Amino acid sequence: MKDVYLLSGFLGSGKTSLLAHIIEQFKAEGIKPAVIMNELGKLAFDSRAVDNEVPLKEMLEGCICCTGSEKMEAQLQMLLEGEDFDVLLIETTGAAHPVEAMDAVLSPLFANKLNMKGIITVADCKRWLDRDNMTPQTRMLFLEQIKHAHLIVANKIDLLTEEETLTVTMQIQALNDVAPIIQTSNSKLPIKLLKNMEATFHDKEVHEAAIGKQLTLSSRLHTFQEGLHQEEFEEWVRSLPDTVYRMKGYVPLKGHKNPFLFQYAYGMVQWLPEYMKMPPQIVIIGEQVDKLEIIGSGRND
Ligand SMILES: Nc1nc2c(ncn2[C@@H]2O[C@H](COP(=O)(O)OP(=O)(O)OP(=O)(O)O)[C@@H](O)[C@H]2O)c(=O)[nH]1
Question: For helices 98-105 and 69-82, what crossing angle results, to 10°?
């Protein structure tokens, strides 16, 4: 399994600086990183931050959350098949919503190969102080990127007074009291903090994880043991709390040879027949997904 980290944060907040700093530290430890950079526009300006030894894929046409997961799947496939690496760092555009970005990366096709460790959000502290002057949409995205983070880098504190730094840290903590907040200049984050991150639950870990572990956004991989009735499955989907944001994968349906491709977003269910026998697994993305009772399992796993 290769660990995956998603770097989120506003335009100019310090994501590329963070990426460069993380790469340097991983390499010093003998860990091989690979990078996917999602830039808006066609010029891969920031890729200069990544040296030639590090496998790099760029997604220059639009934001990963809008172009959909197929492009991301293609990049992941190419990296997994063609490159030798231990960890994957994905820098999202400043405009990416964290749930959509995580959704694009978490493909059931790679569920057994990639382990989503979580979202690191770089928050521009100077900009935070000025957030009341943002448009409502921009402000909302800024807050969502912080709310869903598993680790928050409160960056650019060199531009703040001590008192301002304290105020900003407390305000950010009030928005997300689960993620650790690290104050930095130039995104100088020690990588030892990444190692404790864990945003993915596999079936067998659900019970342990549920004890005393609180998470914002997380994902869960579930394997079905038997075929299900479509109507019962859809009834179960409707019964789920609205903190389940996305689901996708292959669901074995009674009376059909191959599991169906299943997608769920914004309360809508979509089914597509699959011509190959894909593994009967779904990925669930949301809050507290470890606590969900999943249809067909007969118990909470
Ligand atoms: N003063 C100050 N400047 C910083 C800090 N961190 C980053 N910068 C500067 O802010 C600018 C943007 O930094 P990047 O690391 O490129 O930020 P980014 O989030 O990748 O930016 P985009 O790719 O444009 O979204 C650069 O000019 C950095 O040198 C910091 O802690 N303090």
Answer: 50
Confirm or reject: Cβ of 94 under 6 Å from ligand 1: yes
pLDDT tens figures, 232-288: 999 999 999 988 888 988 999 999 999 999 989 878 898 999 888 888 999 898 888
In the listed set 179, 195, 211, which residue is the last one of a domain according to the structure? 195
Answer whether 12 contacts ligand 1 (Cβ < 6 A). Answer: yes
Please answer whether residues 149 and 98 qualify as being in contact, where contact means their C-beta atoms are separated by less than 8 angstroms. Answer: yes
Residue with the smallest CA separation from ligand 1 atom 9 is 14
ipTM above 0.95, yes or no: yes
Q: Does residue 267 sit in the same domain as residue 141?
A: no
Q: Would the CB of 185 count as within 6 Å of ligand 1?
A: yes
The Cα 209–Cα 57 span in angstroms is 33
Is the pTM for the entire model greater than 0.90?
no
**Overall domain count for the chain:** 2
Domain CATH for 276: 3.30.1220.10
The finding on whether 66 has its CB within 6 A of some atom of ligand 1 is no
